[in-house]
């Protein structure tokens, strides 16, 4: 197991605001999309939802509208979706992605992949197997974006998820459900389960950028970056990835 000293300092970048951090990540994504296009290749992005990437997606939309950034060669795979979750429901990650990104850029609808929250439980396993195959058929994920939950989850890989876990049905941690309770008007309305890419699926990405903004993330960011690699905090597995960046604002970095 690597020691805390193994967390290479150069992989942590702290910005004075979430807006600046988001612009930096948006620029990296734009460069990747363009370099893949120049090479005649598709750019495969793994995408996250939640509050963290909202300003990043706004910046990508701005770049599309004002600077001609095209998503014509982009294919996306989202990390996760609640189960059950109809796509039109306010809290749906399908709806989130369309409202914040997809409806405002030139991505082909057939290139968008999001776990299906409408499936009966007995069809989820087969769906997850196909999701993994689709990622593989695209040649793998070039860049995976992540936020981090206060439990240390990445995607919905809650504490004790294994390093080699794949896309699957999971039970959400009570802390995660509590954090979602405001948007669901009460914890009793927050689904108990979700479909998520696994830690292993995420770790297979060629590059990973984890973003964390705000004071509420400071304790889990410090435990992730300064503690040992441990399945009790799935985000610590990211430190074993050869090409990972942790992009923080000063509030999220305040306990480092
Ligand atoms: C969302 C996801 C989650 C979030 C995390 C942080 O697709 O996979 O892991 O990234 O819960 O959420 P926010 O950004 O709302 O603090």
Topology (SSEs and partners):
Elements: E1 12-15, H1 18-38, E2 43-47, H2 54-67, E3 74-78, E4 80-83, H3 93-100, E5 112-113, H4 124-137, E6 143-146, E7 168-171, H5 174-180, E8 193-196, H6 199-203, E9 207-212, H7 218-226, E10 244-249
Parallel strand pairs: 1-10, 2-3, 2-6, 3-5, 6-9, 9-10
Antiparallel strand pairs: 4-8, 7-8
Helix pairs in contact: 1-2
Bound molecules: fructose -6-phosphate (F6R).
Characterise the protein shown here.
With 256 residues, this protein is an alpha/beta fold. It is built from seven helices and ten strands. It has helices at 18-38, 54-67, 93-100, 124-137, 174-180, 199-203, 218-226; strands at 12-15, 43-47, 74-78, 80-83, 112-113, 143-146, 168-171, 193-196, 207-212, 244-249. The protein has a seven-stranded parallel β-sheet with strand order 1-10-9-6-2-3-5, with helices on one face. The chain has a three-stranded antiparallel β-sheet with strand order 4-8-7. Helix 1 crosses helix 2 (54-67). The model is unreliable at 1-5 (pLDDT under 50). Bound molecules: fructose -6-phosphate.
């Amino acid at each position: 197991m690597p020691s805390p000293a193994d967390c290479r300092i150069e992989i942590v970048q702290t910005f004075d605001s979430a807006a600046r951090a988001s612009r930096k990540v948006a620029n990296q994504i734009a460069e990747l999309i363009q370099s893949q296009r120049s090479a005649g290749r598709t750019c495969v992005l793994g995408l996250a939802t939640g509050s963290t990437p909202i300003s990043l997606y706004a910046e990508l939309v701005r770049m599309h509208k004002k600077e001609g950034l095209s998503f014509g060669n982009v294919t996306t795979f989202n990390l996760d979706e609640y189960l059950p979750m109809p796509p039109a429901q306010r809290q749906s990650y399908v709806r989130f992605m369309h409202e914040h990104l997809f409806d405002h850029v030139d991505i082909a609808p057939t290139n968008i992949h999001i776990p299906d929250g409408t499936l009966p439980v007995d069809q989820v396993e087969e769906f997850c197997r196909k999701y993994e195959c689709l990622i593989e058929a695209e040649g793998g994920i070039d860049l995976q974006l992540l936020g981090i939950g206060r439990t240390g989850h990445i995607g919905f890989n809650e504490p004790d998820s294994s390093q080699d876990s794949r896309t699957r049905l999971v039970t959400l941690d009570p802390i995660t459900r509590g954090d979602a309770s405001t948007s669901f008007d009460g914890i009793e309305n927050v689904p108990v389960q979700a479909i998520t890419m696994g830690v292993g699926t995420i770790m297979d990405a060629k590059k990973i950028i984890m973003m964390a903004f705000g004071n509420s993330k400071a304790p889990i960011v410090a435990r992730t970056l300064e503690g040992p690699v441990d399945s009790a905090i799935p985000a610590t597995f990211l430190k074993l990835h050869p090409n990972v960046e942790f992009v923080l604002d000063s509030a999220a970095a305040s306990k480092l």
